[in-house]
Amino acid sequence: MAWIRRKQDKQQAASKLEVCPHCGAPLKGAAGKKQIKWHERTSVTLCVAAGFGVIALGSVHIITGVVSSYGLPFDIVRKDAFGYSETFVDARKISALPYGLARRKYPLGCEVLQRGDYLYSGNAFETRTRRHPQGDISQWQAEFEHALNRPQSGSPWADPAQGAGLEQLRTQAPIIETDPQGPTACNSRGIASAKDAQYENAIAEFTRAVSRDPTFADAYYNRAIVYAALGQLGQAVADLTIVIEIRPEFTQAYRNRGIIQAALDQYDQAISDFTRVLELDPADSETYMRRGLVSYAKGDYEKAWADVREMQSMGLPIPAGFLESLRAASGK
């Protein structure tokens, strides 16, 4: 029968595999032995190498964005303890971040960069990283306003007297007032004293004005300007808040309060004020720039990019240094 013949053929073929084709001697364990391919022979080696690689990554930090002492475009530093936190450290990204944010977001990375002398150590690093972004932001704001051919109005980190300068002191339209101690007369004397740099006298006159008329928004506003010039930023914010309560559509009060709050590192409040300015005046290009800079300082890079895109859609010039730092910090 056919199936018997097939079975016999298979047995004969198997028996041939079990003997040497030359001498006919039987071969032990030769039957059906499969030839091992190259990738099967190396798979164990690859697994072992990968295991060693994983262990090695848990023992070192790999620093990118630097040039090592050997001239390599990266450096390797041993970890203090085994683990996989911050194995890859981007020096450019960390150095672009404002102080505080870098330490909170990349604590190990900051220590590693300091250990490798890629960033200042201790208090020197803290002072540098605190001042560096503030100086850059002031410069970027100045470049932006210069490109628009506008007089410098100050930046969130400039002298508050520049952002809310004495040239902004406000006076009411002339009215007939026979009382020399009336609110308008007091406000006018306060303005004259402030322009003569007699700030204490100016504050006293503005205070008399609001005591006689608690709804006198210009006197509160003027007192806030003088407080800012004296560096008394908390009092300035308090007076501007009263101005906003009396005149909720007064954009300059929101803008100046935002500038001062940014100087106080009160980023959320500053962004809120700048957003209100843009709600009242959507074409205020300088406020888009201010809000973008404060978002950058806060570390909210998505919102900073949103303001950048808005300015780009308006055809506004954006400082190249700001864009470069924002790209480095956000990884875009």
Mean pLDDT: 77
Total beta strands: 3
How far the N terminus sits from the C terminus, by CA atoms, comes to 77 Å
Low-confidence stretches: 127-132, 154-164
Which class of the domain at 159-242 in CATH terms?
Answer: Mainly Alpha
Q: Can you give a write-up of this model?
A:
The protein is mainly alpha-helical and 332 residues long. Among the domains are: 45-119, no CATH class; 159-242, Tetratricopeptide repeat domain (Serine Threonine Protein Phosphatase 5, Tetratricopeptide repeat, Alpha Horseshoe), CATH 1.25.40. Helix content is 62%, strand content 4%. A three-stranded mixed sheet has the order 2-1-3. α8 (183-195) runs parallel beside α10. The N and C termini lie far apart (77 Å).
Compact summary:
The chain has helices spanning 2-17, 38-57, 91-96, 101-105, 107-115, 122-147, 160-163, 183-195, 199-212, 217-229, 233-246, 251-263, 267-280, 285-298, 301-313, 320-330; strands at residues 60-64, 74-78, 88-90.
Topology:
Layout: H1 2-17, H2 38-57, E1 60-64, E2 74-78, E3 88-90, H3 91-96, H4 101-105, H5 107-115, H6 122-147, H7 160-163, H8 183-195, H9 199-212, H10 217-229, H11 233-246, H12 251-263, H13 267-280, H14 285-298, H15 301-313, H16 320-330
Parallel strand pairs: 1-3
Antiparallel strand pairs: 1-2
Helix pairs in contact: 6-14, 8-9, 8-10, 9-10, 10-11, 11-12, 12-13, 13-14, 14-15, 15-16
